[in-house]
Each structure stands twice: as C-alpha cells, then as structure tokens.
Design brief:
elongated; about 725 residues; 2 strands; about 70% helix
Length: about 725
C-alpha cells in the first residue's frame, strides 16, 4: 500500500483509479502488485495458500459461516475488486489472477468432492468459489466483474446457511460424517427445507439466485478475451464437482436410505432461524431478478467499471451455449453424486494430496524458519543484561544513522540560539544523568534521575509547552515515588570491570544517545506551523468549546484514540497484577520510609495540596493547561506519597483501585454513547449552552475527561498496591 501510494501520489482509491496509467508506468507498480497479490491470495485462500482455511474447523457452525463464507476470506477478493480499476491495467494482473483463480477453483472443487467431513467439504468448496471470483476479476471484462460481484453475494447466502445447518446437524446427531448422516428429512423437516433451498442455489438451479449467478459466470468465461473455451471447460468441471458437493450436504443427510442416527436433545429452534432466513433470501432475490436488474450490483459495478454496459440480470429462456453448459454441469454433478461412493476411498491419491500438500511444504518451511531462529537466538540471547543492551545499542545506532543520513535534515535551530535559561537547564539535565550514573545508593540514584526528568519538563515549559511540561513533571514525580516505594534501600552493588569494557560500554552509550538526538533533530519541523496544526488551533474554541488545544484534541477531536489508550492502560495494569505474585499473608505494610520525619511531616502538607492541585488541574483543563490525564497523575502522586509514610493494606486498596479504573472506562465509553444519542456520532461532543463557573461550558467531552482522570488514577494506584502487596509475604 505504501508503494502504491508513492506511485500514485495518494492513498485515496478513487484518486488512484484516475491515475491508473501513471501507476502502471511506475517502476513501483510491479513490486506493489506482487505484495498486494500475495496478501490477497493468502487472505482469500488461493492455491498454494489455501490449506489454512480447511484447517480452521474447530470453530462452531455460525463462526465457520462468518469465517468461510461471509466476511473474513472475502476480504481478499473484495480488496482485488476495489483495486481492479487501479492495478488492472497490465497483462501481469490479468494473467496472474486468471491462472491462480482457475487452478484454485478446480483444485478446491476436486478436494471438496473427496472429503468425508461435511465442514471440510464446505471449506474446500469455499476455496473453489473464491478461486472462481479471482478468475473473474482476472478476466476483467464488465460482464466478468458483474458476475464476480453477484457471485460474492450469492456464495455468502448459500454457504453461510449450509455451514450453520451442518453445525445444527452435528448438535442433533453428534457427527459430521458424510456416510453416517442419513434419513433425517422426517425428523428434521425445517433443516431439510433450508438445506434444500441453499443446496439448489449452490447448484445453480432456478428460481434461486444461484442460477442467475452461474449463468452470468459462464457468460463471462465465454466472453473472455483469451482462451474462453478453456476457461468454460475448467469452470464446467469445477461446477459439476461443486454440484455433487451441494447434493452431498443438502440431500444426502436427509434422503439417503438407511437407519438414521440417534438424535440428541433438540437445541433451541432459534439455531435454524439464520439458515432459513438466508435460504429464503436467496429464493426471494432469485424471483425478484427473474426479469429485472439488480440495483445493488449495478451500483457496485458503476464504482468499479463506470463505462461498463448494464445488462439486466435475467434468465434467458432461449437455448444458448450458456444454457447447454448449465444443463451439462447439472447432469454431470448428479452423476458424480450418484457414483461418488465408488470413486472415493481412503487411499485415494487426491485425498492424500488434499491433506498433505502444500501444508507439508509449509510445515517444512516453518521448521526451517525455526531452525534459523535458534541460530540467531544462540548469538543474540543471553542472560547477561550487558550483552543484550550492547546489541540493542548497536542496532539502534545503525538504524538511526541510516535515517539521519537519508533525511539530510536542515537544522531547525542553531546551537548558538539557545538561551541562558535553556543552557542552564541542559547542564542540570546532564548533571542529573551523571549523578545517577555514579550514585552509590538507591535513594540517591532515584533522586538524581528525578532531577533529570524535572529538567526536561522545564525545557518543555521554556519552549512554550505548559501541558507537556505539567505531564512530564507529574510523570517524573510519580516515577520517583513509585521507585522509592518498591526498590530496596541500600548501596548500589558495583561489579568491577576492565578499563576496555568500560570504554566500550561508554562509547556505545554515547553513540546511542547521539543517535536519538540526531533523529529528534531530523524529525523536528523547521519554519512555520504546518497547516494541520494551524487548522486545529483555530477550530479548538468554535468546535471543541475549549481554548486548551491539547486537551480538546485528547477529549474531543481524537477522543477515540484516547479511549483506545485508556483500554491499553487498563490491560497493562491487569498484566502487572497477573505477573506480581500474590501475598501469602494478609498483614498490612508500613514502608521503611515511614521512619523519615522530614518526609512524614512534608506529606501532611503535600498530600492535601496535591489533591487540591489535581482538582484545579481537572476543572481548568479544557481552557488552561491541565486536564484529566495530568490531574489523574497528580492525584495518584498524592496516593503514593500517603502510602509511603503511613501503614496501608494493599489488598483492600487494590480492589478500590480496580473499581476506579473500570468506572473510568465505563464513564468514558458512556460519554461517547451519550453524544451519539444526542444526535451526533460516537464520542462526538454535545454541549450545554449555559456556562458554569471555572468549567466554562459543560458537555460530553468534560465527562470523557472525568473518565480519563479515574482511569489514570486507578491504573497507577493499582500498580502501586500490587507492587507493595508483593512484600506482604
């Protein structure tokens, strides 16, 4: 997709379609085409990537219907249909899709015919149907595209119904075996009726919609620019095998003579509503299209081939080659169904081929990849942290240097333009980093690291980013408090190292640091603000009812991104909770820092001040620096500080923290639903006209910000009390 966008100068499919000639002449066309076809062929189970689809049989019937007929595997052919106006200008496109689709259509039908498990039979027939659609896209004529569009819908209707019916029969009989299912028409009449309609549509018999689709497919093959009779013959053979498969699923289990299997307790009749509805829909659409056009297919065709002719979807009663091919495949399918037992046996080479190839090739390839991975792991994996850090440092340095050299950036600022305040802050940052490096105690190392983070926050403030500075300062403060609560106090253990090793480690560390600095330098835009930044700033107050652009973006313009990040935070907290060992006792914990009179007395003042500051930051956040995120961090800092200087019961507080976290998620999600109910879309802001002191205007984004506050507070405190609880035992 990236290569295609580079070749066409856009990511819009409609724009790319207009530039198809330019794309076809680009040197990027062929690599983009190869990669896209590989992705689409794998997604839609084309040979030789078809083996995964029949192997995905563990799911229940309705899930199989979704996976194998309706949506998942259709994504690949849908992509090919959408990109046909963009990429379908070359012979490579037509030849590749035509050949791969034809081979897949024929092999899928052949493998399906030899299956004994009904779900595997349907899965292989799905492979065949997908191959037919790909072949039609490869033909590329307007009748072929029309046939591909209609067959995509027809296939979903009958195949989803049959998958669900097979699942229903398995629930009633306990088996999916072709030979074990028989005589079920009298005991399962509703299932038989639905299966018969779906099977007739799959076989292409009127008045089902499948009959129209089958004749359109034959018409497209006979009208192909090259080898029309070869395509028609291959299609006729595949269709005959598919008709036999349709009869095996829809007729055999119900009308085959012999003792019927014992029926188990009947599940809810609602399980049959889905397949019955799908089968009746196919019948209704077939009757509706007997002498009329399909507005749905016509609209889709207009988007793919706007200059195409618009023939009606109708059954021509006159004899023609299309009619003769349809009758011939129907007769051949009935014969194959009748004599299948004599043609199929366990030792059949087709059965062995279906089970082993190319899955065996893929298994061998995967094993070779694992072997290569073991070689790489032997070189790179180690229990010595130093070697891992050095390896990562070298890789980062190489990648960063390549990026900087390729970007050839124009420095956005000159080093001589740094102000006195900024120079002093840079010295403070460097001093904190060096002090951390040479600290002899855990407490001093944590404090020095906090100095470095605070210096970075002040740089943001001097550079005009108060929101970023507030967040950075809150994060650094919170990190220091969390580290103090969980790290053991005492001296840092230093392992003597040779001078050469020290110089090597220091050199790589400096190289990595310079690399990150250079990448940041290259990524910094020079000159005026980009148009998007200016546009968002101008829209902040009229659209988002707030003057704090950062907060408006987080809770309104890109609230969906923020909601996703909140979910990620909650998942991370749950992951930490799962990894931290459960305490073996229920005793309370009084951290060792409680003995510090300075910290204890400072906390008496700081804890209420931090709580008040958190409230102020939240209230003013929509119009001034602040907001729910930084307010939650400050409130969490107050909780952590309180836990450091007084006895706490982590078990009791963990439950409250989790409640805060999930309540915040519910409020954030509920604010999105509320905006939708008030006439907008999900997470679209809805506002009250009246103003409230301090808040300004109230609306769903303020409610969303409250959810952000609670999630951040709940996540941080949950992590804290899980880590503290680790010491209880």
């Amino acid at each position: 997709f990236v290569l295609l966008a580079q070749a066409g100068g856009s990511t819009s499919i409609s724009v790319l379609a207009e530039r198809s000639a330019e794309i076809g002449a680009s040197p990027l066309y062929l690599p983009a085409l190869v990669l896209i076809l590989l992705g689409a062929f794998t997604k839609s189970a084309q040979v030789p990537f078809h083996y995964w689809l029949p192997g995905a049989m563990a799911a229940p019937g309705p899930v199989s219907a979704y996976l194998h007929s309706a949506t998942l595997v259709k994504a690949g052919v849908f992509l090919l249909l959408r990109l046909q106006p963009v990429l379908g200008t070359s012979e490579v496109w037509h030849v590749t899709l035509g050949h791969v689709g034809a081979v897949t259509m024929l092999l899928g039908a052949l493998f399906a015919f030899f299956q004994q498990d009904l779900k595997r039979l349907l899965a292989y027939s799905t492979v065949s149907g997908l191959g037919a659609i790909v072949m039609l896209i490869g033909i590329g004529t307007p009748p072929a595209i029309r046939a591909a569009l209609l067959f995509t819908a027809v296939h979903a209707l009958y195949k989803a119904a049959l998958f669900m019916l097979v699942g229903y029969m398995e629930k009633r009989t306990g088996t999916r075996d072709v030979y074990a299912l028989r005589g079920l028409a009298r005991s399962l009449p509703l299932a038989f009726g639905a299966a018969l309609l779906a099977g007739l549509s799959m076989s292409g018999l009127p008045p089902l919609l499948g009959a129209i689709s089958k004749e359109l497919v034959y018409e497209a093959k006979l009208g192909a620019p090259e080898a029309p009779w070869v395509l028609a013959a291959v299609g006729a053979l595949a269709n005959a095998l598919i008709i036999a498969c349709a009869l095996l699923v829809a007729v055999g289990p119900f009308l085959r003579r012999g003792p019927a299997p014992t029926l188990q307790k009947a599940p809810s009749v609602r399980l049959l509503l889905g397949p019955i509805l799908l089968a009746l829909t196919s019948l209704a659409l077939g009757l509706a299209h007997a002498s009329d056009e399909s507005p749905l297919v016509d609209a889709a065709l207009a988007g793919l081939a706007p200059r195409a002719a618009e023939p009606a979807l109708s059954l021509d009663p006159d004899a023609s080659w299309v009619k003769l091919l349809s009758l011939a495949t129907l007769a051949a399918g009935v014969l194959l169904f009748t004599f299948r037992r004599k043609l199929v046996h366990d030792g059949s080479p087709v059965v062995r081929l279906a089970h082993r190839a190319p899955g065996g090739v893929q298994d061998a390839l995967v094993e070779r990849i694992y072997a290569l991975g073991r070689v790489v792991a032997a070189v790179s994996e180690t229990q010595v942290a130093r070697r891992s850090v050095l390896l990562a440092g070298v890789l980062v340095a190489v990648a960063g240097i390549a990026f900087v050299v390729q970007a050839a950036p124009t420095p956005p600022v000159s080093p001589l333009s740094v102000s006195f305040e900024e120079a002093a802050l840079l010295l403070l940052i460097a001093g904190g980093a060096l002090a951390t490096l040479f600290a002899r105690t855990q407490l001093r190392a944590v404090a020095s690291l906090g100095v470095t983070g605070a210096g970075v926050a002040m740089v943001f403030l001097v550079r005009g980013g108060p929101d970023l500075a507030l967040t950075q300062l809150a994060v650094e403060t919170l990190a220091v408090l969390l580290l103090l609560s969980v790290l053991p106090r005492g001296k840092v253990e230093r392992i003597p190292a040779p001078r050469r090793r020290q110089l090597l480690d220091g050199g790589i560390s400096i190289l990595v640091g310079l690399t990150f600095a250079a990448v940041a330098w290259a990524a910094t835009p020079s000159g005026e603000l980009r148009p998007m930044a200016t546009e968002i700033a101008e829209a902040s107050e009229p659209l988002g009812r707030g003057l704090n652009v950062v907060n408006v973006i987080l809770v309104d313009f890109r609230a969906l991104d923020t909601l996703g990040e909140l979910v990620v935070l909650a998942i991370a907290a749950l992951g930490i909770a799962a990894m931290v060992p459960r305490p073996t006792t229920g005793s309370t914990l009084s951290p060792s820092l409680e003995s510090s009179p300075i910290l204890r007395n400072a906390a008496r003042v700081l804890v209420p001040l931090l709580a008040l500051l958190s409230l102020v930051l939240f209230v003013r956040g929509h119009n001034e620096p602040g907001g729910g995120f930084v307010a939650g961090l400050v409130a969490a800092a107050a909780v952590v500080l309180r836990a450091l200087v007084s006895p706490v019961s982590p078990a009791r507080h963990r439950e409250r923290a989790d409640q805060l976290m999930f309540t915040g998620l519910a409020i954030a999600f509920g604010s999105g639903l509320l905006g939708m109910l008030l006439g907008g879309s999900f997470l679209q802001g809805a506002w009250l006209e009246a103003k409230v002191p301090a808040f300004g205007k109230l609306g769903t984004p303020v409610l969303f910000d409250a959810g952000v506050f609670l999630v951040v507070l709940g996540v941080v405190t949950s992590v804290l009390f899980h880590l503290l609880g680790r010491k209880e035992g």
